[in-house]
Design goal:
By secondary structure, this protein is of the alpha+beta class. Helices cover 15% and strands 31% of the residues. It contains 5 helices and 17 strands. Strand 16 and strand 17 form a beta hairpin. It is globular, with a radius of gyration of 17 Å. The termini are far apart. Bound molecules: manganese (II) ion.
């Protein structure tokens, strides 16, 4: 095949302990998956109607690269989230198939132009411009699911300039990982290479140029970076 211009590079993530990288196909995100965070946003939680949105794969910031402060906002918010990486997929998966589809876990930031999101929410407009902008998803290396098993007591934290901003336990999630995958597979045919951001605990707040962030999915993944 010959193309009219050079094809874009595939976004990929390092895998701890492996030479191969994880080629990213799509990035799905679930909203309002921790009750405390939904409350701080003034939103209701409905476990029977999970709310999903997407980011383009090339919105990921990988390998510890600097994150440029985005255009068109003066209220860039951090949302620290466990991220699940899929090695297989399908439609209408059951819980066992969902669990088996997981290659590994990482930690990422679902960066959000909160000022724009507030306007879109008020108008009932889509969130894409608030969520799916360039460099909106800094992401750690992946840890293989064969090496770790996050459970209800696994902690997720975000420090900014050394100060704790967000802290949660995976047991606080409204939908667990397998339930998220089951729900997504009723809406999309999931594929190897898909990533899922699994929602943020409470404590979302603004980032500014010069901030250094340190996100941890304790015992599993670490992400360090800087807003420039
Ligand atoms: Mn989020």
């Amino acid at each position: 095949m010959r193309y009219i211009f050079e094809t874009p590079a595939i976004t990929s993530l390092p895998i701890i302990g492996r030479e191969e990288r994880f080629p990213v196909r799509r990035v799905f995100c679930i909203g309002r998956n921790y009750a405390e965070h939904a409350r701080e946003m003034g939103a209701a939680v409905d476990a029977s109607a999970p709310m999903f949105f997407c980011k383009p794969a090339d919105a990921l910031v990988t390998d510890g690269a600097d994150v440029p402060y985005p255009q068109a906002t003066s209220d860039l918010h951090h949302e620290v989230e466990m991220v699940v990486a899929l090695q297989s997929g399908g439609m209408d998966l059951d819980a066992a198939q969902a669990a088996a589809s997981i290659l590994g876990y990482g930690v990422g930031l679902d960066l959000t132009r909160r000022d724009l999101q507030a306007v879109f929410k008020a108008k009932g407009h889509p969130w894409d411009v608030a969520k799916a902008f360039d460099h909106s998803a800094p992401m750690s290396a992946l840890r293989l699911a064969s090496e770790v098993s996050p459970d209800a007591d696994t902690q997720i934290t975000l420090h900014v300039n050394g100060t704790l901003r967000q802290q949660g336990r995976l047991g606080e999630m409204v939908l667990g990982v397998a339930e998220i995958i089951v729900a997504l597979s009723k809406l999309f045919e999931l594929k190897p290479g898909d990533l899922i951001f699994t929602g943020t605990p409470a404590g979302v707040a603004a980032l500014v140029r010069g901030d250094r962030f340190h996100a941890q999915l304790h015992g599993i993944a670490v992400l360090d970076g800087r807003i420039v």
